[in-house]
Amino acid sequence: MADNKQLKKVLVAMSGGVDSSVTALLLKDEGYEVTGVTMKLWVDCGGAKGPDHVQSILSDAQKAAETIDVEHFIVDAEDQFYRQVVNDFTAAYRSGKTPNPCVICNHEVKFALLLSEARRRNIPWIATGHYARVECDSKTGSCRLLKAVDDKKDQSYMLYRLTQAELAAVLLPLGRMTKDEVKKVAWNAGIHGVNRPESQEICFIPDNDYRSFLERIETVQGGEGDIVDRQGNVLGRHQGIAYYTVGQRKGLGITSPHPLYVCHIDSDKNLIVVGEVNDLYSKGLLAGEMNYISGLPPAGPLEVKVKIRYRAKPVEAILYPEKENKAKIIFSEKQKAVTPGQSAVLYRDDEVVGGGIIES
Would you name the residues annotated as active-site residues? Predict the structure, then answer.
């Protein structure tokens, strides 16, 4: 059996930002032997800020580790990130979907690498700066993923693909704090960048221009095609389905007495289907790649609340588990712009039930 000192070791993902730096500091103050790791991820260097962006992240993480006085190392994850996140991102757009790369990265890259590096170094715990909570039953060993106490910063949506094994090993100290409290801790500790604006960018596209990115890496396929109404009447031409998303109104290049929105993207026929605002509302959705936090789907229909995108308000719904790792979700009231490629994440009160990728 490992001694107590061994059990107090933790590997912390340090991105150079305030949240991950405070995570490392708090765990050190709790008596953990902290090791920080920064993942060097692939970044589009075709954009003007590419190389500088990468170096800034690595430098900020190193400075934070020095300020906190913890061991720190860098792991090269560029190839894995490109294969599992960037390729998924571009494939989604090619098929007319709108992906959320952070959801894929957290499970496929960040937590996978953290656990791998922790095991290699004989470290029992991992930690990140996510605003969420994990509670594990000491008797059964089962773990629950819960919302953060700071609802405005809650990131449980981004973590719904985590498994029981990952949840049992992770520490999320920011889940019980507000952002203001975290900033105060950082300020008092002299951690760099306390008042830096929070980035909402796609991390691997520094200029946040995903359309230019898709053009640069030559993933846009199908080229121009027709924009049609719901009856199939041709109204105009589109520049490639990758440049459009469900709910989009601007940039369609169509004159109409009523505002028109993208209602559907047909990748097989290379069509953009538009309609009026009422046509954007759906009574439900079909999700695939379902992951249930407990490890098993519910035995039958389940009352839940669902978020159909990260910033969406949770709405009441009924979950109907289906075969082949799919689920049908019926809303209590119709929802606007349900977007294939985004994640539908299910909650009961503060607990994450699970979620999946919206298919239709």
Answer: 105, 203
